[in-house]
Amino acid sequence: MNINTPLPAGEQTKHRTVQDYIDETPMWADGTAVTATPMTPMQWRIWSLAAAGKFFEGLVVFMTGVALPLIAQEFSITPAQHGLVGAASLFGILIGALALGGLSDVFGRKFMFIAEMLIFMVFLVLLSISPSFPWLIVFLFGVGFALGCDYPTAHLIISESIPSNSRGRLVLAAFAFQAVGALAGTVIGYIILKNISDVTSWRWMYATAIIPAAVVTAGRFFITESAPWLFAKGLVDRAEHEVRRLLERQPPYPKTVELSRRHHHAAHGHEPAHYGVLFHAKNRRATILASVPWFLQDLGTYGIGIFTPTILAASLGHATGQVRNLADLLNNDILAAKGAALIDVLLIFGILFAVVLADRVGRIPLQVMGFVGCAAGLLLASFSVDYTGTTSTLLIFAGFMLFNFMTNLGPNAQTYLLAGEVFPTHVRGKGAGFAAAFAKTGAVITAFLFPILLADIGTKNLLYILVGTSLLGALVTWLCRIETTGVNLDEIGR
Question: Where would I find the Major facilitator superfamily (MFS) profile domain in this sequence (predicted)?
Answer without folding.
Answer: 46-485
